[in-house]
Amino acid sequence: MESSSSKMSHVSKRNESEEYRSDSEIDNKLKEIMSSVLGKKGAAVTDLYQYEGFWCPLARLEGTLRAQKHFKPQPNQVILSSFPKSGTTWLKALIFAIMTQSHVSEPTNPLLTRLSHECVPFIEFDFRSSSPKLNLDVPLVATHISYTSLPKSIINSGCKIVYLCRDPKDVLVSTWHFIRKVLVNEEFSAVRDIPLEDAFEFFCQGLSFCGPYWDHLLGYWRASSESPERILFLKYEDLKNETGYWVKKIAQFIGYPFSLEEEDKGVVQKIIDLCSFENMSSLEVSKNGMIWLEKNGVNTMEIKNNTFFRKGKVGDWKNHLTHEMAMQLDQILEQKLSGSGLTFNVPLPSIR
Ligand code: PAP
């Protein structure tokens, strides 16, 4: 027979879930944001709304509001945060592999049959009302939420945060290609066929998914400078150039250091090889699999997994942006980051 305390806990869980599904406070806040700010076009897949200084698509915004109110990190949960199109798919795989390193060579390794986005959930995505998950009870979760808007429960938890960013010129080019590939339906053709010059203008105005780009960076950069033991700040370019060094650094930082024996057995290299662009992009699940975006519990848009793998290179912007465009974006960045100690042409110091 069920004890009265266990019955009580079922009842309170149900109430919590019902309260969560129809949360009038959040619904009102969303309405307020939607009525006070017009949805704007930008270098993004859908219209963007500004919240706490950052541009966000509506579905992610709703998830962000709910996560701010309801998300409770697990003890020692690791949070991977990134600016979109900075290499999240890759870093999710790397950290997942670090955390499950003893399985790295096993044929049953989930990373061989599931996209890393399926292995590591996005907080703001899973906290939308259409897919409410009150507890993301996994050791690693990801987010694109700015530091300003991170749920206070994360900031107060002392959980480790690993942040990833990338040269904005490559972020812009990657985003532009993503938009063109992801919006297959004709109804999206106006957004999909946005000229690169227009996407560039939007990006320079800060109008991109999670933009302004520089404010996203600076929030995490400053927090990481103040609390380096809590936030590890990474750049895609450094990760590409010195993958082994940074994999070990990340492992140590999140509390999963490699033993000498593991290093001798080549575990670090195995993780690097498993997660490499060449390997991940050639897996069956990456070539032919898909994930669904849903609305109110209904699948509304499929995203082919191969859209998350394009070139995986540093500096592909050179094949798309003019010299003038590159100079303009570099100048904006230099001005926005001035005085912060963060630059993009110098690698972060690797302390051996
Ligand atoms: P998301 O924000 O939608 O999650 P994200 O994974 O951050 O996307 O970025 C995609 C970029 O990472 C793509 O860059 P590109 O367009 O310049 O090619 C993608 O190719 C790259 N990428 C994906 N997997 C890897 C990997 N294993 N190694 C290196 N780069 C990768």
Structural overview:
The chain has 352 residues and is α/β, with parallel strands linked by helices. It has a single domain, classed as P-loop containing nucleotide triphosphate hydrolases (Rossmann fold, 3-Layer(aba) Sandwich). It is built from 18 helices and eight strands. The chain has a four-stranded parallel beta sheet with strand order 4-3-5-6, with helices on both faces. A two-stranded antiparallel ribbon has the order 1-2. The N and C termini lie far apart (60 Å). 3'-phosphate-adenosine-5'-diphosphate (PAP) binds next to helix 4, helix 8 and helix 16. This is Sulfotransferase.
For this entry, give a set of tags.
disordered N terminus, binds 3'-phosphate-adenosine-5'-diphosphate, two-stranded antiparallel sheet, 352 residues, four-stranded parallel sheet, alpha/beta, Rossmann fold, single chain, 8 strands
